């Protein structure tokens, strides 16, 4: 059993150790990829791996927990130990990480709570979650013979709040449930953030997050520690080696040699955790969202991050630059050639069947009938889509219609015809509608997509984090009453109920089925460059969103999601683009802008 301490230096069994770490998120890749990713981290010259633990992934529905498959944190940490890596865990209830709602579960929005605070309603939920999660982590601690050397109390809290009692209560909960390795906080390396976000007065270790100007940032951290009479080692908990990307914006890149020079400088000053070492993928509906003024700017499915390994796990040129830099500063480290990936095209296949969502809504979903509209969180899990259907009286002349206070992106159909797509600046715009001459009622359908909740900054507690229709629908100048709500999560249960013999209508949101057989499997990408907007589901597994806006026009498909023999891919297309074929490709399709 090893012993890890934080004194003037990090000590492992009483001997000084420099932590050279990399971030690998077990939940952004398949379990079959873990070993190669962890091995490549060690081959880089690292001795530690770091990962967040997202609350919303492990408790997606209140009281329903999932730690299987890609969510098996215990298996991931155990594998890291087998490969000889130490582990830093960040089980804080908020993680940011460009992850949906910063890791907070959507069901928290069903009631009014002050998140990340001593609000007793919030802390009661934290206690319940920790009572399930932390006992799983206790045996993994270095104090119990495991590889975990440190755990995080809260993440970048100084960029959000300053309530020290909240931090204390979180720390006390962790200790109550058996966490006895050193605890830490991580914040931006400037005085205001460190002052607000740390528990230095209670001996909780202080780390910083930055990706350049190491000397300047380290000087700020040292001064802050000295002010509190601490002489701790310096640790950059997130040394940003790339950056995340948003829809409709160019891919962000960082020069490999420039990063290597910065890493070299940081290693002469202290320890670091490369964020990210391997970014992976925001599978399903778990991508996060940035906030810029009144706008929410959702992030893309790929979390490639321009990291040292690509989204699919392939070593980049940046990997070798950093590997050489580590060797220069720490010549004694073990290094090796990294493992490489094999990719395949796997062919092109025609669409087998298609059907309109509006034709089968009552078959695949059970509607909830209410007088006023429910939000997504009230009507279902809060992820994916929600369809609102209403019958509005037909006055046989042009009438006003307006959806009030809704998010994020709306498709509005009048008698099955697309009336408008509203998003960002156009949300809530008034429109004029006409019913059909021969009918007494106008059939209104509004499909709303949750594009991802804000994961960082001032909007974390904003009412706009609740998705769907929050206000109502105005017909003429009054609020309409009487709605059917369909929560569309694209679950395996819903997909199995699709009847492809029902009406097809490519102008409406539609399901496209592709059935094909494979003799060999390989990692691959699905070319979405001719699609509009939607998601791709491979053998029941949601790969994530595609969007014509770019900057990436493909989705990464790990070989583990495919089968030898029969396969089924379902594409849910919302923007009226008729899909005729599925094309596999060897590399991601990236905008050339």
From TrEMBL:
Domain Beta-galactosidase 1-like first all-beta: 373-488
GO function term, MF aspect, one: hydrolase activity
InterPro entries registered for this protein in UniProt: B-gal_1-like, BetaGal1-like_ABD1, BetaGal_gal-bd, Galactose-bd-like_sf, GH, Gly_Hdrlase_35_cat, Glyco_hydro_35_CS, Glycoside_Hdrlase_35
Keyword Hydrolase among record annotations: yes
Coiled coil: none
Segments traversing the membrane: none
Pfam families: BetaGal_ABD_1, BetaGal_gal-bd, Glyco_hydro_35
Domain (Beta-galactosidase galactose-binding): residue spans on this chain: 509-567
Entry's EC annotation: 3.2.1.23
Catalysed reactions listed for this entry: Hydrolysis of terminal non-reducing beta-D-galactose residues in beta-D-galactosides
Keyword Chloroplast in record: no
Domain Glycoside hydrolase 35 catalytic, chain residue ranges per copy: 9-328
Gene3D superfamilies noted in UniProt: Galactose-binding domain-like, Glycosidases
Superkingdom of the organism of origin: Bacteria
Keywords: Glycosidase, Hydrolase
Enzyme class, UniProt record, top EC level: hydrolase
Family, similarity comment: Belongs to the glycosyl hydrolase 35 family.
Protein name per the record: Beta-galactosidase
Source species of the chain: Candidatus Enterococcus mangumiae
